[in-house]
Amino acid sequence: MTSHRIFLLTPEQVMARRAALVDLLIAVVEAGASVNFVQPMTRAKAEAWWAEAFAAHARGARLIFVAETDERLDGTVHLVPAPQENQRHRADLAKMLVHPRAQRQGLGAALMRAAEEEACRIDRTLLTLDTETGSAGERLYARLGWTKIGEIPGYAMRADGSTTDPASFFYKVLAPEG
Ligand SMILES: CC(C)(COP(=O)(O)OP(=O)(O)OC[C@H]1O[C@@H](n2cnc3c(N)ncnc32)[C@H](O)[C@@H]1OP(=O)(O)O)[C@@H](O)C(=O)NCCC(=O)NCCS
Asked: Is pTM beyond 0.90 here?
């Protein structure tokens, strides 16, 4: 078990964690994770991405969870409710990031559980995501009961830009709270 607190951020709490969230994204990409960026991961790229994420968070279009101790922020995951009016029951899971210094302690699983609980609470009972095939993320989602529907070859450039890798697509149906 870790001593991290896992919780959903308010817009005020997000702004106070801006630099730590930028640092987290940079650290994860520099460590080689395939999360929509190619190295070198500049501060400018990370700040621009978070600026859009914070704007979406402020209008309720992205829920941001973090894992932190009193000293540092070590992880995040985002719940993105589908905006389509015929998919009011669906949300995407995105930006599942655990800092390399804090991986393999159960934080990823704890963040996913928090996001799934909140999704259930707000009646988003169908969750979807994609991840790099063969990654730690793919193992995590399978372990937590997500269903893999398949792979798309050559989907995304590897973080070091050397080649493209396939992506795996997953979904999970949550039992509504009773
Ligand atoms: C994918 C990711 C979020 C997983 O986060 P994490 O905090 O390491 O996840 P967990 O600790 O819950 O599980 C990871 C592994 O540690 C193991 N583990 C968990 N607690 C452990 C403990 N106390 N001691 C030893 N191992 C442990 C798990 O069994 C799991 O093993 P496996 O990968 O061999 O199946 C993290 O690796 C990451 O941020 N990667 C880079 C970004 C990324 O790829 N994100 C996914 C994009 S879709």
From this structure: yes
